[in-house]
Amino acid sequence: MSSIPFFGPGEDPGTDFLTLLKHNGLDPFPNDLPGVIDAGHATTVLALRCGDGVVVAGDRRATAGHLISHRDMQKVFPADDYSAVAIAGAAGPAIQMVRVFQLQLEYYEKIEGKPLTLEGKANQLAEMLRGNLPQAMQGLAVVPIFAGYDKARATGRLFQFDVTGGRYEEQDYATSGSGSLHAGTVVKLGFQSDLSIEEALSLAVKALWHAADEDSATGGPDPIRGIYPVLSVITADGFRQLSDGESGEVFAAFREELNGGE
Amino acid sequence: MTMPGMYVSPEQLMQDRADYARKGISRGRSLAAVEYQGGVALVAENASSTLRKVSEIYDRIAFGGVGRYNEFDQLRIAGVRYAELKGYQYSREDVDARSLANQYAQMLGQIFTHEMKPMEVEIVVAEIDTEGSAELYRIQYDGTVADELHWCCIGGDSESVLERLAEGWTEDLDRDGAVRLAVNSLAGPDRTIGAEELEVAVLAVDNGRRCFQRLDDLETEALLAQ
User: Fold this and answer.
1) Total CB pairs under 8 A between chain A and B
2) Inter-chain contact B77–A111, Cβ cutoff 8 Å?
3) Residue B105's domain is classified under what CATH number?
């Protein structure tokens, strides 16, 4: 990149960061790949609403075939101060999508002088998924969950997507990835409206544990290395990710419960 | 196309353009940037609360512009794009104010000599490092770029404002002190400027990744009253 990007009227790429990248010869989602590849996969993520906002959680394992490729992968990312995106699917394209999505939100905010609404952010992510469809057809599908605190409505909201860019707002919870069936069942059975943050975190931990228990591609808590699934909370105060230590404590409480020590 | 009998010497041409640009800029109010312990304060006289003169470019970089709004806003957007593209291609730490200031200088210089009319703008690019020390670049309508130490001022009445800044600046200024110095320097001895006539923003080292932060009218009013 050599000079400052300056556009005449009619050529201006506006608030879309992807268009700007393409104008400069950069394509973050190339769609002319020959053949089908089987790259590393990231697995179970989930989000559920609670009284004060939303809880977003994900395991830490990435797999390549039957091998574990990463034990401490991050699948839950802050999209901006009041929203998060959790990814399942092909790890490489998923991380790239999160990165471009984060940049897009900040880029829009700076160009326009105010952030997108939560709805606008969800639509933006759907648009990126639609752009990724050719890659998805070639084995690099990305299936994210988007969750955030909607300041205008003063409530947590969450959105599920499919590979085609379909966007579905969920009222209670959303899950994605290979362990999503098990995680989803556990959340479904334990869900109540207006859960406290602590209750929602316990439920998320329980769901992730059961997913890891049944699905080989989902990683459970790893107390030997001190690596625990990622737990994050988004409320009116913004996005906060719990440390491994805090996450470990929630798992320890769950262990007590499993052992019948109420 | 040549026009017979219409020879204008290059000196005259440049002089006319410079006069034209200066006239446009001098009609507007000034903007001051002041370094303090842990950041930079950018203060502009601006009656509008939506058409901004001071803005965020990148994590540690801010922009201030005076003159024609549509022109410096174009420059602001170009700067955001330049910074975001560079950060995407390389890393966030590779984005710096010096190269951005040079790009602005190239662009303004090019427009000054080649376009129908020069841009009637003057801009400042500010950056703080991880300790909060500031770099300030002032770029003029013709592409002249200068790096300024501790404080700088752009816009119509900049000479007298600069004198007042030089008089009042000390190394141990805090944020509020820097904003007060900037406001008093912009106002001069004979008038006061209310918070609703001001646009105040800071680059503060303790703001996390995105150092840029606006101060609303209430905060500004409170700190001016101290």
Assistant:
1) 47
2) yes
3) 3.60.20.10
From A160, A174, A161, select the one nearest A130 (Cα to Cα).
A161
CB–CB of A176/A46 below 8 Å? yes
Q: Is the residue at B10 inside a domain?
A: no
| Known catalytic residue at A43 | yes
pTM of the entire structure?
0.92
**Under CATH, what is the fold of the domain A39-258?**
Glutamine Phosphoribosylpyrophosphate, subunit 1, domain 1 (3.60.20)
Tens place of pLDDT per residue across chain A (262 aa): 558 888 877 788 888 998 899 888 888 887 777 777 776 677 899 999 999 999 999 999 999 888 999 999 999 999 999 999 999 999 888 999 999 999 999 999 999 999 999 999 999 999 999 988 888 888 888 999 999 999 999 999 999 999 999 999 999 999 999 999 999 999 999 999 999 999 999 999 999 999 999 999 999 999 999 999 999 999 999 999 999 999 999 999 999 998 885 5
Amino acid letter for position B50: T
| Three-class SS state of B57 | strand
CB contact under 8 A, A103 and B84: yes
Q: Where are the domains of chain A?
A: 39-258
A107 and B80 within 8 Å at the Cβ level: the answer is: yes
For residue B13, being part of any structural domain is answered with no
Searching chain A, which residue's CA lies closest to the CA of residue B62? A110
User: What token pair was written down for A91?
Assistant: 């790890």
